Amino acid sequence: MKELLVELLMEDKTLIHVPFGNGFFDIAKSVVITWIVMAIVIIAVLLLTRDLKVHNISRRQAVLESCVLWLREAIGGMLGEEGAMYSDYMVTVLVFIGVSNMVGLFGVTPPTMDLNVTIALSVMSIILVEAAGIAKKGAKGWLKSFAEPMPVIAPMNVLELVIRPLSLCMRLFGNILGATVIMELIRSVVPIVLPAALSLYFDLFDGAIQAYVFCFLTSLYIKEAVE
Q1: What's the structural domain count of the chain?
Q2: Is the pTM above the cut of 0.85?
Q3: pLDDT band for position 101 (50/70/90)?
Q4: Which has the higher per-residue pLDDT, 10 or 209?
Q5: Which of 61, 74, 101, 144 falls 20 to 30 Å from 189 in CA-CA distance?
Q6: 118: domain range?
Q7: What is the predicted pLDDT for the residue at 35?
Q8: What are the residues whose beta carbons fall under 8 Å from the beta carbon of 225, sequence distance 6 or more?
């Protein structure tokens, strides 16, 4: 187990070395895979949204609209009425993390197994949470909210600004890393049938669950910030 963790965490994460000055400008593997995931999502969106109509819509458009409405309603229910305007962003994050977690089906290391990626996603989410709070309450109201329900707990509320993104990034990173470790251990013991079956669980079901949990918690934080 120790050797496996060292191999997974200490492997060379650089995929592309670009000559720059007297050295190299390194591009990490997770960054390249993230670009590929973004390209896949963008191409899929462009293909699925071609030739949309108002009347006499195709079956493809009907299914697409049903999926979009279902996602918006699911995320909107977590955000509440006050935070409904952020549903499209949260749906985008949900799709991105979900697809990123599922690329392991093709033998590719998920970018969310890189702590830098999960930190970036968490920081973006917390910035959105605090920006939503400022937009709703104003700068003074946002600052006063740290002293609620009583001024004595203001330091704890400030500390929560650090704890929240740390919790989000470590939960996502830890679950994806744990699933990868389990799959590698299973492959070393039963190299043929069982890994393929469990890969469907860890890469599809568990990957989707982790994407949902990330968006669920972020949505709760936004709902709390705008109330």
Answers
A1: 1
A2: no
A3: confident
A4: 209
A5: 101
A6: 2-226
A7: 92
A8: 83, 129, 130, 132, 133, 136
